[in-house]
Amino acid sequence: MNPKKIWSNLAVSDLDRTTKFYTELGFKPNGANDSDELTSFFVGEDHFIIHFFLKNILQNFLKSEIADSQSANEIVFTLSAESKDQVDHWAKEVESAGGKIVSKPEEFGKGYYGFVFADPDGHKFNVFYM
């Protein structure tokens, strides 16, 4: 298998809230794919795409249950930071935008610094500097 591209599809309960949250964090909208069923963003220099579908749309497509991201982890994305100061700044941005800090910025292991946050639907992100 040699796919041209990979992206993620996550379930959310409120597209407007999701769009507002990720826009406030500075994620670049992938407007060509936005509809009344999904909102989409580019992430990072390589423009990784994250589609956020309404939960019932994604569930109907997959023909299976969707993990409850508020109580379980279906995936954890890692966002690379350029410095400890940037990690700390992003933690403040996440809280200001309505995200939940799961673990505060801290050192873990030699030369590693970061924190974990959840978006309003419980999707987890690890912000990481090394």
TrEMBL record:
Transmembrane annotation, as ranges: none
> Known InterPro entries for this protein?
Glyas_Bleomycin-R_OHBP_Dase, Glyas_Fos-R_dOase_dom, VOC_core
Q: Where is the VOC domain?
A: 4-130
Pfam families linked to this entry:
Glyoxalase
Q: What is this protein called?
A: VOC family protein
